[in-house]
Amino acid sequence: MNAKYNFWFYIGSQPLYGAEILNKVEEHGKIMTESFNVDEIIPFQIIFKGVGTTTDEITSLCQEANNSDTCAGLITWMHTFSPSKMWIHGLNILNKPYLHLNTQFNRKIPFKTIDMNFMNTNQSAHGDREHGFISARLRLKRKVICGYWEDDSMRKRIAIWMRAAIGSIFSHNLKVIRFGDNMRYVAVTEGDKVQAEKDLGWSVNTYAVEDLVKKFNQIKSDQIEEKMGEYREKYHINTENLESIKYQAQLELAILEMQKELNFSAYTDCFQDLGELEQLPGLAVQNMMEKGMGFGAEGDWKIAALEAVMSEMSRDLGSHLSFIEDYTYHFEEGNEAVLGAHMLEISPAIAQDKPRIEVHQLGIGGKNDPARLVFEGKEGPAILATIIDMGGRFRLIVHDIIVIKPMEAMPKLPTARVMWKPQPDMITGNEAWIYSGGAHHSVISYDLTAEHMKDFASLMGIECIYIHKDITIESLQNQLLMSDIIWNR
Ligand code: MN
User: Fold this and answer.
1) Is residue 1 scored above 60 in pLDDT?
2) C-alpha 297 – ligand 1 centre gap (Å)
3) From ligand 1's centre to the CA of 470, what distance in Å?
4) Domain boundaries defined on the chain
5) CATH 3.40.50.10940: does it fit domain 2-171?
6) Is the pTM of this model over 0.85?
7) Strand (E) positions, 82-229?
8) Which residues are placed with Cβ below 5 angstroms of ligand 1, an ion?
């Protein structure tokens, strides 16, 4: 459990019912909260905030939620009937993710004993409709989940929304640092940083590579030795060139020094702008990504930010994700697959086995041979997610994939690599991704699913295109046409 965040559970009602029924409602709320909190399906703590019965109570609860540093979302449920004009002001000012549960304390109707008293106490069937109306009327961003509160199926959906809510909270506080600009002439790594801060909360700012060089020159040899110890413990050293590894250790320490000062969670670099640095960060950034640092190569700050957000969403699951790039295709008929990799910067969080540190020449950039981790990605279902700037809005694209073991070993490939089969098949999947404008850079995650990312997009109020096993090009093209009408507001 990530103790940085909790969620507030608040039940709506009204004074009309009298103390006896309201006490019963409160008691039920406590029982449900305790049950949620001992269930490992629910990944974050839920705090019961009582029963709201008046406009003032509801408004002040929403204000309190807004001001809380740890509250990552408000979960509401109408055990009885709560006239929703009482909720207008509170919900209008609420700036935390909002989940409306439609459930009921009793699973089954007690046919033999049911009377009006029972019905008046247990009337979420219509209390939640009144509540749903006001959210619809106010055009609020919300998630609605219906189900019996003890059922795993409902709790799993709550858990998915919780991770998306954490992504949203984290996103609104995210700082991204750029060392140098994005790669010259590249389109997809461009983007509107003001729009990004407005829509996604990402504060994206540039620092000179010279600032990093200054930090680099201040790193002491005992710090480097300590970092080398960490590398030796975590990775196989498969090179004689220890100097190159030490150089990466010094680079990592320099970036961490800057992080201490600037408190960023994601950063970019660009091989075209390394100043006096003698190597492109490889092992250095790989080791940091494994601990949750978002990274984008060639100045791709959008993917760096998205990676940091997805890492936070899946932290308690181990954050098995990485920056990745579609690199080259395998067009064997009936066994088509994509080989994903990058020049250096793939996170060891997705490694199948213990990674090897190797030193090889880097064909571009004209700098010294950088140490990097080489490994194969672990097999299994995963998603690719990317975010592009459509001009005035951002589009999140999510693609279901199956990571496979490569058909053969690739002993001469000097980089980490992952091989996958896009859904529904490589031909349709690639066409769908390309029609959607998906970048060559994306985040691969083994922990998160499209449901998490769709909930995240919904919370952020951005467009989301989902490429899955049932998609057809025709339906996607229609959706893309509709999107331009819907989102160009
Ligand atoms: Mn790239």
Assistant:
1) no
2) 6
3) 29
4) 2-171, 175-487
5) yes
6) yes
7) 98-102, 143-146, 175-179, 203-207
8) 297-298, 325
